[in-house]
């Protein structure tokens, strides 16, 4: 049975006063991530977490323009699509995907990965309930989450943490996660206490018999630009079969040329509100459309961009159903 071992961690920091909660949080983050990463992420959050224009890889960030959310909701109500879109957003489907790669280690033939993304667990109680019911009966070897667990991009994190706490008992075994542009670094200690293993520019190695699957995860590349692929892969042996977890597909070129075999991400919601035929009005990402949703390939790397199981801005989906994805790894026909 495959098991996970080896994780790289950062240096420690000075012990805070035991009664100072804020100092304790900062100390824990520095201990967990190293002073540089922790201070950079906290500083960027204070300065830029709710900017509409000018931060991150995208010039414009509609998720931070809160007055626009009400305008979109009003427009959908006026044209009679609000209730329909809300119903659509709660009909989560299981999507099966098969990665066929000739260099997959033999022991990982048939290995199954449950991939969840963009949960936004505090957006809609009915959606969270349906997500739990959707994943409960599924069978897989490993679960990965590719970011965006909170509804908002700033402010309190308690409701999102409560939703993640309710979800965790229904996810089997090890759960690897990365953070997205909606997620505060302040969520990290609580998520890890719940049993989510967050990869913050770090890696794990999954061993099966004599074979190893190397998995790296990076901090949010889209808004906070806190990803460090080199640090995440510093212990990878040459030619290793590897998987990258990223919140967004926007770093697909770097990942492919960095030698990754597989790439899992989300962020785009597949467009969330699409024209008939599933054509997205926007992906809210600085990337070409071919990596915006579903299975894709670039150079020698295969990738999958999840449409996500939750919603952002408004809890509506049109022509773009929410999903959880079961990836099966294979070497191909035998």
Automatic annotation (TrEMBL):
Residues 112-269 form the Calcineurin-like phosphoesterase domain. Keywords: Hydrolase, Metal-binding. SUPFAM superfamilies: Metallo-dependent phosphatases. The keyword Iron does not apply. GO terms for biological process: lipid A biosynthetic process. It comes from the Bacteria. One of its GO terms (molecular function) is metal ion binding. Transmembrane segments: none annotated. GO terms for cellular component: membrane. PANTHER family: PHOSPHODIESTERASE YAEI, TRANSMEMBRANE PROTEIN WITH METALLOPHOSPHOESTERASE DOMAIN-RELATED. This is Metallophosphoesterase. It comes from Hydrocarboniclastica marina.
